[in-house]
Amino acid sequence: MNFNVETRVNEIALSNPGSRRILEDAGVDYCCGGGKSLQEACLRVNVSAETILNRLQQNSERARSHESGWTKAPLAELTRHIRERHHGYVRDVIPRLRAMLAKVREKHGSKHHEVGEIEKLFADVAREMLMHMQKEEQILFPYIDAIERAANGQGEVEPPFFQTVRNPIYSMMKEHDAAGELVRKIRAASNGYQPPEDSCTTFKAAYQELQQFEEDLHLHVHLENNILFPRAVELEAAAV
């Protein structure tokens, strides 16, 4: 979507989660003040509308880029990408989305009881994902990086306490399944992320954020289950 200084702020906010983050970081009100033009909203918080437009354009260009090349890239690059892109996204979005859901529940929860259920489900998946990512970053990914260095003749691999990479991979895949089931329940409770007719901008934005969370989880799991993990198993067999 092409934006200009006359575009209403709520239209920008509802275009994608990245746009909302840009508005939030600049202090631009897209909920109660969502009917204002970008120019007017920016004047209220003393920021440049042109600067915001440039950031929105950069965000749009990044959003159009595709994940590619990971079947042949060094595994250390892939583990770093997962940490920075997907783990970083999850850690960034959890507090923002929990705050949005709490706000929606306070305003709409008495009429839309599903919001409370969604809030609890998201708290569960958030807790599971934070523990899951910590285990990957502290145990599994360092070992994968080490066996790749060994395969390249850069040292030897210390025998891991988990015996073989297949064991933590099995655990991580089970946890992927559990997170996916929680997200499936969120999708069902939210009617496929379709907000009710009386929803405010924050309500709509929360559902969009939840949908983005699901999409990111699917790509995150794809990169690990279908690319990183099989390649790590192959590499361990050759390097150890």
Structure description:
- The structure is a single chain.
- With 240 residues, the protein is mostly helical.
- 72% of the residues lie in helices and 0% in strands.
- It is built from eight helices and no strands.
- It has helices spanning 9-13, 17-26, 38-45, 49-64, 75-108, 114-151, 166-189, 201-239.
- The longest helix is centred in the C-terminal third of the chain and has 39 residues, at 201-239.
- It is globular and about 60 Å long.
- The termini are far apart.
Largest sheet: none
Rg over C-alpha atoms, rounded to the nearest angstrom: 21 Å
pLDDT < 50 stretches:
none
Q: Which term fits the overall shape?
A: globular
Number of strands: 0
Total helical elements: 8
Helix content: over 70%
Instruction: Note the gap between the termini.
Output: 51 Å
Order of helices and strands: HHHHHHHH
Q: Helix/strand-derived class? A: mainly alpha
Structure summarized in a few sentences:
The chain has 240 residues and is mostly helical. The chain has helices spanning 9-13, 17-26, 38-45, 49-64, 75-108, 114-151, 166-189, 201-239. The protein contains 8 helices and no strands.
Please give the structural blueprint.
Elements: H1 9-13, H2 17-26, H3 38-45, H4 49-64, H5 75-108, H6 114-151, H7 166-189, H8 201-239
Helix pairs in contact: 2-4, 5-6, 5-8, 6-7, 6-8, 7-8
